[in-house]
Specification:
Layout (H helix, E strand, L loop, with lengths): L1 H17 L5 E4 L8 H11 L3 E3 L7 H7 L2 H13 L10 E5 L2 H11 L8 E5 L17 H13 L3 H6 L12 H7 L3 H4 L7 H8 L3 E7 L15 E2 L5 E2 L5 H4 L5 H6 L3 E6 L8 H12 L2
Parallel strand pairs: 1-2, 1-3, 3-4, 4-5, 5-8
Antiparallel strand pairs: 6-7
Helix pairs in contact: 2-13, 4-5
One 2-acetamido-2-deoxy-beta-D-glucopyranose binds next to loops.
């Protein structure tokens, strides 16, 4: 009998030890749904709870395009509050593509007892996008599309109807961006500075930002590393942005303290394997 108790106690200690990795919330991208292959792979590799909620239920693909970011974030936040493993916070986020923008919502606006623990984003448009996917400036269609979008994007109806309008950045019109961007300018503390939002980023144990070297969806792809376009469409690295220089949202502090890193992987948007994902998230999510 004593032996049995001992064995059970030992078993409990061992399994408890294995569960020290915080739960992981996977947030899917635009025109996409939860990839439960990724969720299962991360969960078994890290031996922890992992979950993904399709935003908009059966209509996730449509919702990811046509619901604005605040609304998508609110839906996901409600799901988190209903999830026993996630509801108190202290979970890590794996944000994929537009999921990285919704991650900002969860970090900053979703009320949690403990702040989000760590984050890894893949191809996240942290400083927005300035061209439609696969239509860069070099193509006439890209230039034409950008011209049209730049004309209409900051009208409110677009911002209500199309999610990417919430993180569109017209590099030639920084004032228009600051005035009308319904989500990104606020979430990045570019419009109104809010110390509380910054503190929530500074509460992260670690942040890792992954860029696809041949990304043709996030334009400019340097946005995945908090870079952007200058008004004449040259790349501005994160070091030369106001967001970084003034440390508006804490990214500079995180990097200087060794709590943020920036890595790249070959290939176009969404080209990654389960092994790649696991190898990249493991050192971040297990600390
Ligand atoms: C739990 O962790 C221990 C030591 O880290 C390891 O030897 C063991 O295989 C793990 N158990 C499971 C069920 O993964
Ligand atoms: C957060 O999760 C980690 C890893 O599971 C754990 O060690 C830590 O105690 C937790 N912190 C809080 C405040 O619950």
């Amino acid at each position: 009998m004593k032996l049995l108790v001992c064995i059970i106690a030992l078993f409990c200690i061992c399994t408890a030890h294995n569960l020290t990795t915080a739960p992981v919330l996977v947030i899917h991208g635009i025109n996409d749904n939860c990839d439960y292959g990724i969720v299962k792979s991360v969960s078994s590799h890290l031996e922890t709870y992992a979950q993904c909620y399709p935003i908009g239920g059966d209509q996730a693909k449509m919702a990811s395009i046509f619901y604005n970011i605040n609304y998508q974030g609110k839906i996901l936040c409600d799901k988190i509050h209903q999830d026993e493993q996630l509801k108190d916070g202290n979970f890590s986020i794996l944000g994929i593509s537009q999921g990285a923008v919704i991650s900002k919502y969860i970090i900053e606006y979703c009320p949690l007892k403990h702040p989000v623990r760590s984050i890894v984003t893949f191809g996240g448009p942290h400083m927005g996008v300035s061209f439609a996917p696969t239509f860069p400036k070099e193509t006439w269609l890209g230039t034409a599309l950008a011209w049209i979008i730049n004309k209409f994007v900051y009208f409110n109806f677009m911002q209500y109807l199309v999610a990417p309008a919430d993180f569109w950045r017209d590099p030639t019109n920084p004032q228009g961006y600051l005035k009308h961007s319904r989500f990104l300018a606020e979430a990045n503390n570019e419009r109104n500075f809010d110390q509380n939002r910054k503190d929530l980023w500074l509460a992260l144990k670690h942040a890792r930002f992954v860029k696809w070297e041949q990304d043709t969806t996030i334009i400019p792809r340097e946005s995945s590393w908090w870079g952007m376009y200058s008004p004449d469409y040259n790349i501005v690295s994160r070091f030369d942005t106001e967001v970084y220089k003034k440390d508006l949202i804490g990214i500079r502090t995180l990097e200087e303290e060794g709590r943020a890193d920036f890595i790249s992987i070959p290939g176009d948007h969404m080209k990654f394997s389960h092994d790649q994902i696991n190898n990249i998230v493991r050192p971040v999510f297990t600390q």
